[in-house]
Q: What sequence folds into this?
């Protein structure tokens, strides 16, 4: 297969996944794939599935020599091109989407050239990413600010997400790293992106991130909240695999919401409300905490623009007058996420009109 053909084939496979990876007139997506994959790696990726397989199973299914597959699969796993895991001494591998997946796993290989490529491609990719449902991400509010009289479901509680996992790891935020390499971004904490798994010890031999304990996971969330970072996770009800802690200046999701002036492209179950009668007008909520420009001055006080608010709760914790509260949206406005990641992919694929059954 010609070199250009294998990269186009890889782009088509990634775009067949419900998350998407659209082609462009400029061909920037092919340049990105060449930066990450060798032709041999690109060819093998296209032969993988969305479920875990051993090297032996892949060899039997594809007719590839097992002796050649094993080192190549391990190398691709360590380079963040596929997802691998080692459980009870058995290694398994599967393909992953561009986002959330390959892109985030490139944090160790991120350089200025790659950062510039991803920023150029973002304009194309995020249009597709936000224009279909189910939504990619959901906001998990600062839990202590959820009124106990409001019935927050487990996927709306960060403690429930943490407590359901058995293994944890953290790593530097690739979005923040990319912005820094381009001379942009902020000085908020960097080692703040968290991976989760229900498999005990799965991150001990994993190439991505640093394994941490459950207590350290909670401390990471506390640090994120202290520095005004929004908790974002996958838009599902169970088996969450990550919690991103995001700022409005580096995160492409939050930056998109700011640019569009709406919260409709993330799943948010709450919104903030300010009691204008006792608001002192200090502006801390608007100037220091809100990551999506959802709070504005209103004569001598401040008010929340509900259509822009993502209900993260960051403005509540630092209000000196304690006049901000989180309010749960009416039942008719709540969007129940798909139950599992598989359900999300099925629903997203149907909306996009793509058939990815051959990759299952």
A:
């Amino acid at each position: 297969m010609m070199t250009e053909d294998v990269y186009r084939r890889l782009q088509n496979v990634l775009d067949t996944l419900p998350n998407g990876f659209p082609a462009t007139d400029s061909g920037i997506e092919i340049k990105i794939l060449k930066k990450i994959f060798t032709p041999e790696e690109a060819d093998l990726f296209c032969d993988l599935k969305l479920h875990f397989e051993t090297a032996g199973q892949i060899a039997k299914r594809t007719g590839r020599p097992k002796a050649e597959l094993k080192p190549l699969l391990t190398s691709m796993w360590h380079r963040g091109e596929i997802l691998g895991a080692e459980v009870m001494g058995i290694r398994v591998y599967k393909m992953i989407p561009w986002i959330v997946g390959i892109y985030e796993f490139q944090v160790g290989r991120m350089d200025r050239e790659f950062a510039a490529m991803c920023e150029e491609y973002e304009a194309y990719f995020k249009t597709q990413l936000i224009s279909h449902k189910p939504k990619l991400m959901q906001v998990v509010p600062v839990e202590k600010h959820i009124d106990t009289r409001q019935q927050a479901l487990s996927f709306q509680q960060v403690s429930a997400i943490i407590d359901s996992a058995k293994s944890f790891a953290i790593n530097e935020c690739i979005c923040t790293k990319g912005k820094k390499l381009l001379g942009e971004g902020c000085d908020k904490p960097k080692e703040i992106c968290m991976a989760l798994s229900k498999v005990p010890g799965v991150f001990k031999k994993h190439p991505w991130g640093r394994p941490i304990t459950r207590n350290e996971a909670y401390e990471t969330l506390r640090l994120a909240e202290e520095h005004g970072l929004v908790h974002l996770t996958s838009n599902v009800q169970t088996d969450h695999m990550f919690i991103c802690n995001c700022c409005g200046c580096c995160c492409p999701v939050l930056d998109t919401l700011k640019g569009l002036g709406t919260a409709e492209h993330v799943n948010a179950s709450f919104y903030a409300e300010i009691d204008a009668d006792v608001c002192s007008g200090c502006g801390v909520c608007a100037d220091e905490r809100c990551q999506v420009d959802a709070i504005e001055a209103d004569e001598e006080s401040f008010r929340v623009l509900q259509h822009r608010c993502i209900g993260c709760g960051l403005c509540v914790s630092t209000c000196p007058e304690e006049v901000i509260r989180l309010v749960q949206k009416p039942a008719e406005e709540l969007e129940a996420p798909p139950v599992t990641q598989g359900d999300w992919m099925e629903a997203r694929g149907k909306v996009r009109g793509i058939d990815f059954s051959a990759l299952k």
About this structure: The chain has two domains: 3-124+351-359, 136-336. The chain is about 35% helix and 15% strand.
